[in-house]
Amino acid sequence: MSTVRQLFVFLSLSFLVSLTACQDHLNTPSTPRYRISQYRESIGRSSYTFTFQYGSDGRLATVVNTGNSGPYTYQMQYNAQGQLSRIEGTPNIANIGRASYKTYEYDGSGNLTTTKLYYLSQSNQTYELYETRTLTYNSDKLPVTNTVFIVPGASTSTYNYAYTNGNQTQTTINSPGQPTTTYSEQFDNTPNPLYGLIGMPEGYNVSVVNRNNSIGPNRKATYGSNGLISDLVIGTNLDAAQSRFLTFTYETY
Length: 253
Description:
Layout: H1 3-12, E1 34-43, E2 46-54, E3 60-67, E4 70-78, E5 84-91, E6 100-106, E7 112-120, E8 127-137, E9 143-150, E10 155-164, E11 167-174, E12 181-184, E13 186-191, E14 212-215, E15 219-223, E16 229-234, E17 244-252
Antiparallel strand pairs: 1-2, 1-17, 2-3, 3-4, 4-5, 5-6, 6-7, 7-8, 8-9, 9-10, 10-11, 11-12, 13-14, 15-16, 16-17
């Protein structure tokens, strides 16, 4: 796995709120209950498939990425309060990808406040800090500010979020040397299969914070017989060559 993709996977974990993965994050009243077992993301000739394994306590234990550049395994560790405390990333094939780990710190209210991402240096074989993220929250325990400090280059970017009905409907980004960017999103009324799933290596187009699924002019969603989203196509005018394809597979528990 490339360093860029590893970072891409780990960055998403900074948006987690203090939820436990043992909860039914699909939150449907009927039985059986569903949880995601596989998530596939592809664009052009590149594709990534994430397979999820859960422990007997219902928490996410392992995620295996079988992307184009080789398998990569993420192992989740939890503290005594049941909060995600550390994720260790290990390439399953020698010389493909870099070993890494990420730590998680919480405040007294259980909010995730700080994450630190480390990569194994190929030159001296020691772990070096690559990135620190600091989050603040609103009264609903949703992250409203995400400050990202990248150690190489000493650059800082800030993400500000606004919510409607538990969904991130507006994001404002301030990055060094770039104009301030604000974009908005619309949502459906079906459960987001990744909501609250601690340790989910989400892709660019999926969130673990939003309760529902992002939809819009450049997004085409398909739903299964269980009422949950099964496929999502994202792209300008939904052009097949340039679109991103997401597929969700579930298991009962």
